[in-house]
Amino acid sequence: MVENEKIVLKLDHICKNFGHIQALKDVSFSLNKQEILGLVGDNAAGKSTLLKIVAGVYSPDEGKIYINGEETDIKSPLDAQRKGIEIVYQDFMLAPNLDATANVFLGREITSNWGIYKRVQRKKMRREIQKTIDDLRIQIRLNKLVGELSGGQRQIVAIARALHFRCHVMLMDEPTAALSVAAIKNLCPQVKKARDNGASIIYVSHRLPEVIDMCDRIVILRGGQIMRIVHSSEVTIEDLVEIMVGAL
Amino acid sequence: MDQERRSKNILMYNLLVFCNRVLKFIFKFFLKSSYGKPVLFLIISTVICTTITPKFLSFANMEAIIISASPLMILAVAESLVILTGMIDLGVESIAASTGVLIAFLNIIVGMHTGLGIIITLLYGLLVGLFVGFLVTKARIPSFVTTLGTYWGLRGVGMLLGGGLPIGPSSVVPARPIGFSWIAGYLGKVPVMPLIAISILLIFQFYVSQSQKGVHIYATGGDEIAAKNRGVKTDSMKIFVFAMSGILSAVAGVMMAAWLNSGYAWSARGYSMQAIAAVILGGIPFTGGYGTIIGVGIGAIIITMISNIITLVGISPLYNYIATAVIMIIAGSQIKKSTEIVK
């Protein structure tokens, strides 16, 4: 439920070309505060491209992006992170040889500086991330290497990473693609908990039932254009499919 | 009587629990921890060598091993930093050899002050490392190819500088002793070479395990794309490790020149492969991301022990290469498996 309809992210007339291919044509939508916005479409509809533009991987050829009402230019993934935008990748983007704590803080370690030498403060980082993990109500051994965790646990680490740095906008790109059935069942409450903890979420998935179950509104893309923006309570899976393929 | 039997049973139970804990610890340490396997290999190697000849465990022989392992230990540390990021440096032995010639040239032929000569040689190592780093990161030439170039090219530099001959005290008239022979000497009763090598080992182990840069080095080796995505400057990490490799190889080169009392362009032959073998023995896979520097130091000692036992037993030194290869393959099969390709 969206209680406070403040817009945290607005995309205005976004276009993106790759050579002769127009991946996105005049895409405009907004994301409200503490909203879960679904993004669906067939293959090559432009979902990943759109997400990557917001995450700073690509720059739009045309159009504007607004964060909390201010026009902004997202130059890189690091720039996006600084602006409070975090992306949870389908393949998690975690270093398997580091533990959960090190992965969460990778690139933003808490250090004590001895001149040019920066010593990592592992215990402090672990204590901090433990609070975030506890909020998600999940048990993960923070000193275990991420490569030894299950898919579901790695997904939690990726979500915890996004939440810990107080992201305003969380982009979730096919978060259930690499998960088991049991893990998928666990993910939904975690995403909603992340929303309750203050994040606004753009949720990309091919699994339409989970999109309808999870999301407040759904943006439907086809051929790089927005076909419709609907409330999840007002649409069925069949409706979504028909809009996606062009029958409606 | 019942009380006595009960006490005995409790004692037995506690003993079993204790034995169980000790066995679990041993299992966990030797098979699961980063240090365990190198230590296990060291113990096994020591037992085998002592069984072959009891002379092996004498103080004099142990001292000889640790002294002759010192340059290899430093080269192995250099190599391990590069391999941790998933790359390779084939040129460490050529940097060491050419540095040996350079310091000998500066100190004996030019008559330069030893301290200044050492600084220049370390700068030379740094510049070579930076050059390699830039070729790998900016020109996108694979590290294998780039360092194969330095492997050959820097030997050539050493040959040109020395005219193909060793540069020693008798290279000038009147003869001039090298000013850095103290490196091959003793500080009181402690040999200087192992002191330097072990200090470097401990410093770099501390650095990679405790510093932010160390975390980034491991992350670059573990998953470079994930690391880059989180803002880790992976290209800078690569340049850094090659720079460190260059400096450390130069240190090893100065050490070898002190030990040989001359600089010779063909010294350190085979040391690149031995350094890589030490890295593998020490528990760092080719794909990087795992393992410890101390493990690599232990690997260097094991490699030197093979050489030592072959000499003690009187077998031809030509068997050294075969023995090292066999040990390396056995050690390599024990390393954490990865599906990634070598960079």
Describe this protein's structure.
The complex is a heterodimer of chains A (248) and B (343). Chain A has 248 residues and is an alpha/beta fold. Chain A has a single domain, classed as Rossmann fold, CATH 3.40.50.300. Chain A is built from 8 helices and 12 strands. In chain A, the strands form 3 sheets. A 6-stranded mixed beta sheet of chain A has the order 6-9-10-3-11-12, sandwiched between helices. Chain A has a 4-stranded antiparallel beta sheet with strand order 2-1-4-5, covered by helices on one side. A two-stranded antiparallel ribbon of chain A has the order 7-8. Chain A is globular and about 60 Å long. The mean pLDDT of chain A is 88. Chain B has 343 residues and is mainly α. Chain B has one domain: ABC transporter involved in vitamin B12 uptake, BtuC, CATH 1.10.3470. In chain B, 72% of the residues lie in helices and 1% in strands. Chain B contains 13 helices and 2 strands. Chain B has a two-stranded antiparallel ribbon. In chain B, helix 5 packs antiparallel against helix 6. The interface between A and B is medium-sized, with 20 and 21 residues.
Essential attributes:
heterodimer, A: 248 residues, alpha/beta, Rossmann fold, six-stranded mixed sheet, 8 helices, 12 strands, B: 343 residues, mainly alpha, ABC transporter involved in vitamin B12 uptake, BtuC, two-stranded antiparallel ribbon, 2 strands, 72% helix, disordered C terminus
